[in-house]
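Hi D.,

Good news: the full-assembly prediction came through. Inputs first.
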Amino acid sequence: MSAENSSPALNVEKSIVILLDVAGTTTSNTFLKDTLYSYVTKQAETFLKESWEEQEVKDAVKLIKDDLDQEAAIPLIKELTEKNSDNEGLKKVQGLIYKKGYKSGELKAHVFPDVAPALESWAKSRKIAIYSTGSLESQQLLFTHTTEGDVSAHISKYFDQSSGSKTESASYETISKELEVKPEEILFITDSVDEAKAAKTAGFTSVLITRDGNDALPEEASKNFPVISSFQDVVFDKSVKRKNEEESAPTEEERPSKIAKTENGVEDEKDKEEKKQESPVKESSVDAKVEDEPMEVDDVAEKEGIADKGDVVSEPSAKTEEITKTEDTATNKATEEKSDSSQKLITETKTEDEKPMETDNNSVETTTVETIVTELPKEIKVTEVTTKDTEEKKEVKNNEEIKKIEAAVDEKPCDKEELKEATKSEMNKTEIAVTEAIESDKTENSVASTTLEIKETTVEAEVSKKETEELKKQAEIKESKLEEPTETKVEKEESKKVDEEEIKSTENENLPTKVEETKTEASKVVDDTKKEDQDEPKIISTADTKTADTEKKVEVEVINKEELQKTDEETKAATEDTKMVTEESKMVTEETKMATEESKMITEETKMITEETKIATEETKMATEETKMATEETKMATEETKMATEETKVATEETKMATEETKMATEETKMTTEETQMVTEEIKMATEETKTEDIKMVTGETETVSGETKVPTEETKKVAEDTKLAKEKTNVAIKETNVATEESKAVIEETKVATEKSNIATEKPKVVTEESKVAAVETKVVTEEPKVATEEPKVATEETEVITEATKEGSEETKVATEEKKSPTDESKPETVESLKMETEEQQKVKPVEESMDAEPSSVTDTKPESADEQKETVVDIVDKKEEPKVVENGEEIKATEKKPEEKDSTVVEKENKSDLANGIEKSNGVGKEVTNGNSKDEKQNGGATESTDSNVEDIKVKKIEEAATDTTPVSVQV
Ligand SMILES: CSCCC(=O)C(=O)COP(=O)(O)O
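Then the structure:
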């Protein structure tokens, strides 16, 4: 061993297990990257498309990522492979893809040149195990298909990431426990410093290796770990090998050759090598130290796996898989569910698995049996001790037989060693045949275990048969020695040999496959022996006629016969044993079947539960999402409700303002109307009070009364002027009224718009409320499952409902308020119209001027100036000042706006008077228009259109006043 400079010394002697990393240790990284991974990227698509429905593929893909569909899986697998990901699922998929490549010969795994020889050498005294991120299947495939041949025979166990991460010390502790070997007795060789550290932390002896193509190791690495560059650097001192092994057990090279010679006479090295590879366990040595610290190695399971060159073996999950396969080859796709019963089954099967290996060794020599018995779990020990007893019994029996024969046939003593060898060889041959049959039948561990039990008994039967044959042979040899010439003897021997070989080969073909056949064979042996026994006396009777030598022969024959009888009995007993064992085996098989069925059911149930859990999880996720969405919707609805409430508020404010404006406009209109009325009234009064003469004067008419010509005075003219002005003022007032009416209209429009807005604003919350309600219902339904999540949306929903209700109420109130506000606005116009109508009606009540003249209203009476001049003055004052209409009350001027309610009455009276006057004027005017009727007609024609009617009424009124003021036509006065 050569460690690099300044590296710690490498002491490997205490190591009984060598644990090896793969990439960068046994195999080049370049091979992995350029060949394996590249193969995966090329084959991924085809492979996944072809094998997507296979359970192991599904399981592996699922392990990469849950719910991965084919389209997504293909690029992901490629990508992860290119990234050299250690994803466990990926490694499993890769393993499945490699399988195809290795099987077809497309792939051949690289191992560094020193690997195969080192493995072979180490395996003689140590156990070798592999620990890689690659899946168990990948590992097995790799070591089975290397450029150096199949080196998997030297490897006892494989570990993958199911034992944990390679950079975590806990994983190494797990491996140590799995191997049942102390950590300090495990040597770990790797190229990774992190892995070396983790293993060292767990107590392993870690060794770093440098390889071509690897990254250089960090400098401090060599200070902490021994560094090697080849497996040749690790050499074990042979002296640590177990004494027993050195003393009695044949070496690796010796044993198979001996078997070969015994069995076939000639067996080439190739066959020998094949056998070695097929049954590596049989050949692996067990170190003395292993006795102290039992090491559990799943040898048979591995052997089966190796035989199948693709089945994953070793980890509990893989074992479960194996068991499932065993019991149901039709549905032999494994499950990795780790149920309790599966675990139990694993233990049972494992126990059974371990037996054959040890039994094989036991059959080779008793000392080995003892050693192994100490290593085995209790349950196995019972079986093993029984086996050992049987073996010892057989040995003793053999020796006795041999001694007896030796004594009887002193000319040619039986070769004890040869007999032993023959027995051994027979058993080995049977075992190989059984193993082959197991492999060919694709029977798995548990069946193998039961079959191996059968095998044991078969071997016993075989031994018995062999003994019988041997004895027979001895007797024949002796007989022929005595009777026949050498030539005949040789011929007979040869012919017998040929026969035996034929039988053997037939037996070897048939033995392992059927228990019943084994039984038959055993019975056949007994029958044959009996037959021969019956034949024997014939020979003896022939001998009777011969010489004294013949008598001696007869004695020998008798002895032989007795011996043969004994053997016969033993054979019978063995056959009985065989039967019993067969029955037991059947029962065990049945039990195993049942257990497997249970395991299957549990697995199915577990799967279903897992599926259900998944679905439930998905549902919960969806429900949570829906709840979230509903909550969001509720939030939004609440926001919208808030906004709508705000809008409603604004609309309400606007409505209020509009209403206020309308009110004001109405007030203005009223006032203007009243002013107009007052002015009109005043004019009327003034006109009334003006004498006909005065009117004439006012109109500037000259008249000759009683021969006296009267010319209108300046004063009269002025009155006329003033009247004109009053008329204009009235016009202005009317225009103002019109403007006010227009404004009122506009306000009404605004109010309408505001009302519309308000309506819309009221509708919006309603819609939102509906939405909220729907959302709330959805939320309720959706949130049934996640109860906790339901509480919030419920509260939110209820709040929303409350808010919505409040909003509704608010909206209703707003509506009502809007309606309320609307009505005065609408009424403002009718009010004006009504008043005007009233006026019109009043106007229609045509009263004779005389009557109206006679009737002097009290108010008018009160305000009536005492003289015509005073009256005129009053009118002039009003017109001149062009101010707010004034009412003169008891000589005091009061602003129209300041008028008291009682004053209104007087105004009304004045109005009536004015109407009377106007009517009187019109009536008296023969050429005057039918104003009243016309007005009435207009109203009808307009369909009651208030605005036009209003203005018409006003116009008519103004015209009347104008006419009254300006018309100097005597006609009017004459009336
Ligand atoms: C062992 S077969 C495939 C190898 C593989 O995929 C891998 O990643 C090996 O890495 P490690 O260093 O963990 O053996």
